[in-house]
Each structure stands twice: as structure tokens, then as C-alpha cells.
Amino acid sequence: MSSSRLAIASAHHLAYAPQYVAQALGFFEREGVEVELLACPAGDSAIIDTLNNGQADLVLGSVLFALRMVQEGLSPVLVAQSNQNTRHWLMAREDQQTFVWGKLRGATVVVSPTNVPTPWVAFRQALFNKGLALDEVAFVIGYSAEQAVSEFKRGVGDFLLVDPESIEPRTGLKEVASVAAALGPVPWSVYCSTSVLAAEKNRPFVAFRQAVSAAAIWLYDNSAQEASRVLAKVFADKRATDIAAQVARYQRAELWVPDATVNPAHVATWDDALRRGGLMPNGLGLAQLCR
């Protein structure tokens, strides 16, 4: 692969809209880099194999991919950032206009996202930020997302922690508190590579970062309906109205970073959360991965 061409491996997800917009609107071409987007299974850490076997130059996803690379003796580099917020919310059966996090003291929370650890780490840090200790809240853990919603609707627990995208919108449940608002911006989804590739492809990596930044700004500056028109071919399995609704949600949540340069302050926040949640290996810090 020439130095001006890049292959990007990631899950095929609307949350990663900036890279699809950058490709569709010619932002990559404008920056002088040719980009191929490779779809991989969501949440599968085997995605880093695409770096080892030369299929990809960058992988997009959780920073845990980079930590996995460290554990395998590789030298990861955080090249760029896509998403800055978790998409998880606390939900209730009824509207709670006066919700404060202190209401969780003595309450029971049904936890849905148990297939990956980062949503739990984010929620744990949100509790810490709001002055709540883990033993002040009861947790029901182990249900699938579908089971969690079903049990919660039947009366189990006082609140439900879930990604609203993963459940049927007609459940009647109400969003009462954003985990992201309590956590603050973090490098939720990052583009990662190896130190060897980062040195070899520095110029196209910079060009890629500039194009993705421009695409994120475009997504904030344009309507969700216009974004839906641009993304319709990429997500042909979704209805245009559903794409627009999801983009509008992401716009409100400020999901994407307007500047794809990895922010050291956000890295430090997430480093603390991962360390508190037990996911940060001893002797390693995320700041070491930013070069």
C-alpha cells in the first residue's frame, strides 16, 4: 500500500459517521489521501489483527484495543479521535424532571451493557464524580439488553442503565440522566495504529485527521436530514428517517470531536476512570500512547 493510501478497520456503525461523511463528500481526496474503510465485527478485539497482517493502517474503536496491543507486545499509538462521549443513559419508567444523581443513593440500577466493560467503567466514574460510592447503590447485573428492558418494565429496579439505541424506542421508558454529562469528554472511540506505521505514514495520518475533523464540523453545521442523505448509501439497511433521528441524537449529545487531534486532558480523565475500574495495566498510562 502506498504511503498516500490508508485502510481503516472499524465496526460499521453510524456513531462513526465522520469517516463516512469524509469519504462521501471528498474530504479525504481534498487532503490528498486515499482511504478504504473496512467493516469488522463490533467490539471484537481481533480487529487489531488487521494491523498485524497488513490489512489496515488504522483501527477505530475503544482505547481497549490499544491496551490489548500493549499486552501483546506491540507499540500502539493513538493517532486520532472520533467520539468523545459514551452513549449510555439512566432511564426510568416515568419522567423525572427534577432528577439529581443523589436519587441513586439507596436505589437499584439494572445494568444492561454487560458485553463490554467500558460503559460500566464510564458509569462507575460518573458515580464517583457525583460523590456516590458503589456500596450506596444496588446493581442488578447479568441480563442481556433485551432481558434488562423486559425485567425493568416488569418492576425490577428503580433505574435502567442502557444505550437507548439498543432498545425498541416504543418501550415507553424515559431518559433521565446522561452518563456522558456526568463523566465529561473522554477518548471514547479512537483511531489507533502501531508506532512503526505512525512513523512511516505520518503525512497521510495528519491528512486523515484533518479530513475527519472537517467531516465532524460538517455534521454539526448541517441538518440531520442532510446528513441522512449523505449517509443513506453507506447504511442502506436503515430508513432515511431512522438515520436522521440517530444523527440528530448524536448532534445533541455532541458525540463527535470537531478536532480529531487526541485531547490530553480527555485522555487523563479516561485514564483515571479506567484505572479506577481496574482496566488500566500497571505501569501504563494512556498518555504514553499519544505521540
TrEMBL record:
GO CC aspect terms: periplasmic space
SUPFAM superfamilies according to UniProt: Periplasmic binding protein-like II
Domain SsuA/THI5-like positions: 17-222
PANTHER family documented for this protein: ALIPHATIC SULFONATES-BINDING PROTEIN-RELATED, TAURINE-BINDING PERIPLASMIC PROTEIN
Name of the protein this chain belongs to: ABC transporter substrate-binding protein
Chain segments annotated as coiled-coil in the UniProt record: none
Localization of this protein: Periplasm
Organism: Aminobacter anthyllidis
Family under the similarity heading: Belongs to the bacterial solute-binding protein SsuA/TauA family.
Keywords: Signal
Pfam families according to UniProt: NMT1
